[in-house]
Amino acid sequence: MLQADVAIVGAGAAGLSLAHRLARPATGAPRLSVVLLEAPPGPLRAPRRTWCFWEPAAGPYDAAVTASWRTLRVRCPRGRVIEGDITPLRYKMIRSDDFEELVARDLACSAVVRRVEAAVDTVQGIAGGAEVQAYEGDGRPLTVRARWVFDSRPLGSLPAARTTLLQHFRGWFVRAGRPVFDPGAVELMDFRTPQPEHGLSFGYVLPVSSRQALVEYTEFSREVLAPDGYDAALRHYTEEILGLRDLEVTSSESGVIPMTDAPFARESGPSVFRIGAASGATRPSTGYTFAAVQRQTRAVAAALRAGRRPLPPSGHAVRSRAMDAVLLRALDSGRIDGAAFFARLFEHVPAGRLLRFLDGRTRLHEDIAIGLRTPVRPMLRTAAELPFLPRRPFTDP
After folding, report:
1. Same domain, 378 and 328
2. What is the pTM of this model?
3. Which residues pair with 144 in a beta bridge?
4. 378 and 343 fall within a common domain
5. Which domain holds residue 347?
6. Is the Cβ–Cβ distance between 332 and 199 less than 8 Å?
7. Together in a domain, 280 and 380
8. CATH code for position 40
9. Is residue 42 domain-shared with residue 102, that is, in the same domain?
10. What is the arithmetic mean of pLDDT over 219-234?
11. Quick check: is 188 in a domain?
């Protein structure tokens, strides 16, 4: 049996970020022992993925950042280009392998964090803390007792919601034989893709150099595509829309992110808390998660060191979640054209302010000003009906 002050279940972005913060010495703070439980290789371990976020020029994970940009582009359905400079922010791309390698180097030097490879079976409260039951790679049972447990594993099912859309995507890491990409700008949303009946779709291009990029096809809709539908959409986007026919695909990634107005519980017992996407860190209107995870784990680490009960903060402010609920319902009901909605926002709101809005860092008067750039009547009608809509369990399509 292992004993610690803190046990962290899962070694994705949230689990690793919290372990990394607790591994760093803090002047005047008590030294906390930490056990990080990571799933063994196999279906329980999160697949490789790419995270994007924005922050001021310098950040704590810059050594693992693949590329960053200060210019964002949005392309309207008919091809008109909207371009914005987000200085002093930088839009950053980090791959999970690089992030894990950076954190692993620091944890290897830590005297307080112990990494254990084990499949967690149960987490339950006990007197004065919580107990984790797990199995190591060779099948041996393992018990971990801790004062506090933070569980970052994906939920088995989503909480009941009024609206749940899926952000589903496939990306190709591609290499071209000649310079074809602009490494100075991100193609954030290219709406020249065919639009679904409900929701929206867009292309997304993250250029690492003039010859290398991550190119993605993304949809916000009720149902995922057939397995071969994503590659077909990517071929259409790269060949017919971007005009690139000789790209070498070096690797790929896929994902499905629930975009929901469901309330997420942040605690499952007096000493057991959820962190990351399982606690609502994913922004319902966009799917961005990494920046909220950093805010959440920073607050948890500060509370632990101060001797306070470390309830993780909500991933996003109440006002932000309320506005997202209106947007999701308006998209799902077909009251607004998703491509026109986002294109209009980027056209009329400075890109830097819009990113602050998406991070929940704008003030009320700024939120109102941004709201006036949306289709006001459909949004007001949707806001008026939301309180009367029932929350229903989500059923996988």
Report:
1. yes
2. 0.94
3. 2, 132
4. yes
5. 318-388
6. yes
7. no
8. 3.50.50.60
9. yes
10. 94
11. no
Q: 């149960």: which residue's tokens?
A: 122
pLDDT value for 396: 66
What average pLDDT does the chain have? 94
In this prediction, residue 14 has a pLDDT band, given cuts at 50, 70 and 90, of very high
| Residue appearing with tokens 């107005």 | 261
Q: What's the number of domains the chain is made of?
A: 2
Amino acid at 50: T
Last residue of a domain, one of 247, 278, 306: 306
In a domain, 177, yes or no: no
Question: Does the pLDDT at position 328 exceed 60?
Answer: yes
